[in-house]
């Protein structure tokens, strides 16, 4: 594992040009593609099509920090009695090859993280890669760069979330939110990343959002805006082709609360659709959610992806993950409980029975 000096040197290294990047994600109809090939190419499992899916896990705290001096001590490591955001990212990066070896192709990370307590009614901590005016904090983006670089090397996709309810108020107004979207997308494009999907907001219908433009009735404005921002290197189009005149743009969507169906304005604006399975205790409801999503006005053939679901039962033949796969939707593991992947400080290893059960099932399903 890198020491602090080596880690800081990595953060200071110049960005790789787009031509040097190894991993590019795209969509072709309802399939996810990596480097022009369907994910899990040719794979089926118990009669279910796996090719084109993107099995993923919610790992949103990879660049977490707390700028509130009154709450920062809550996240101290047991061994050092101190919180260390660089250590958190180093340990995240060190764990990534293990996740990948089990067939996990994607993870969600968020510039405003998620609740470091798993679930919280209030969020007094200050965890945001955005300053009040929407500009980016270099320390956060440096940590993100080390994660995205490693993902690129491993052939993994990062679902980069921008805003999280309970932290969006760190931006002073809607104009700052728009500036934040622009700055984040331009930063990613400037680094040449092509292994990125954008989740503009985590659960845009969550009542915790303060800024109107992030809320569900208007979130499509930010989706369209994010799609309009282009940088050099050729636009990576659905179907994995390039148009050098248009410049690169990212595939963009936004998620909704658990057990909710995306609204028409989001379906029409998005490149892929994000669902959450929280609150879904009957696995058959997962199938129903996918079917209902495909009937929303404006739907056309496009990937459907769960990137948050806190239900497990991986040892049972019927569970939320397998129902999603059976409906041809990708599925994402969300572990908000003690020693999971969201409570800080995070143990990024596969260190609990619950984690092992998930990764072993991903390995079995994907044939990795």
Report on this structure.
The protein has nine helices and 15 strands. By secondary structure, the protein is of the alpha/beta class. α7 (284-293) links the parallel β13 (273-276) and β14 (304-308). α7 (284-293) runs parallel beside α8 (320-326).
Please tag this protein with its features:
368 residues; alpha/beta; six-stranded parallel sheet; three-stranded antiparallel sheet; 9 helices; 15 strands; 15% strand; globular
Query: Proportion of β residues?
Result: 5-15%
**Biggest sheet: strands, sense, closure?**
6 strands, parallel
Widest β-sheet, arrangement of strands: 12-9-8-7-6-15
Number of strands: 15
From the spread of the alpha carbons, the general shape counts as globular
Secondary-structure-based class equals: alpha/beta
- How widely separated are the two ends? 25 Å
Number of helices: 9
What is Rg?
A: 19 Å
Mean pLDDT: 92
Give a topology summary.
Blueprint: H1 4-12, E1 25-28, E2 31-34, E3 37-38, E4 44-45, E5 48-49, E6 56-58, H2 85-101, E7 106-110, H3 138-154, E8 157-164, H4 174-190, E9 196-202, H5 219-228, E10 235-236, E11 242-243, E12 251-253, H6 264-269, E13 273-276, H7 284-293, E14 304-308, H8 320-326, E15 332-333, H9 353-366
Parallel strand pairs: 6-7, 6-15, 7-8, 8-9, 9-12, 13-14
Antiparallel strand pairs: 1-2, 2-3, 4-5, 10-11
Helix pairs in contact: 2-3, 7-8
């Amino acid at each position: 594992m890198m020491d602090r000096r080596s880690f800081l040197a990595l953060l200071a290294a110049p960005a790789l040009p787009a031509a040097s990047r190894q991993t590019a994600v795209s969509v072709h109809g309802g399939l996810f593609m990596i480097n022009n090939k369907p994910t899990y190419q040719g794979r089926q499992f118990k009669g279910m099509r796996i090719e084109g899916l993107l099995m993923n896990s919610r790992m949103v705290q990879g660049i977490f920090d707390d700028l509130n001096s009154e709450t920062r001590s809550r996240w101290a490591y047991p061994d050092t009695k101190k919180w260390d955001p660089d250590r958190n990212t180093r340990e995240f990066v060190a764990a990534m090859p293990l996740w990948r070896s089990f067939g996990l192709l994607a993870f969600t990370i968020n510039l405003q993280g998620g609740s470091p307590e798993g679930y919280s009614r209030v969020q007094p901590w200050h965890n945001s890669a955005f300053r009040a005016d929407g500009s980016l904090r270099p320390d956060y983006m440096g940590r993100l760069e080390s994660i995205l670089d490693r993902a690129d090397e491993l052939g993994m996709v990062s679902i980069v979330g921008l805003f999280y309810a309970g932290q969006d108020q760190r931006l002073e107004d809607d104009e700052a939110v728009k500036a934040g979207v622009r700055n984040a997308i331009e930063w990613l494009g400037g680094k040449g990343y092509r292994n990125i999907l954008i989740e503009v907001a985590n659960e845009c219908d969550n009542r915790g959002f303060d800024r109107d433009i992030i809320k569900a009735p208007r979130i499509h404005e930010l989706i369209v805006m994010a799609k309009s921002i282009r940088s050099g290197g050729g636009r990576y189009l659905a179907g994995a082709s390039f148009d050098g005149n248009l410049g690169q743009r990212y595939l963009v969507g936004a998620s909704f609360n658990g057990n909710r169906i995306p609204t028409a304005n989001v379906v029409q604006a998005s490149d892929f659709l994000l669902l959450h399975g929280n609150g879904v205790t009957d696995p058959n409801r997962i199938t129903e959610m996918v079917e209902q999503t495909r009937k929303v006005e404006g739907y056309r053939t496009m990937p459907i992806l769960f990137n948050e679901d806190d239900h497990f039962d991986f040892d049972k033949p019927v569970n939320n993950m397998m129902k999603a796969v059976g409906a041809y939707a990708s599925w994402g593991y969300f572990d908000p409980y003690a020693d999971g992947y969201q409570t800080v400080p995070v143990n990024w290893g596969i260190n609990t029975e619950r984690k092992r059960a998930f990764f072993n099932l991903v390995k079995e399903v994907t044939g990795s």
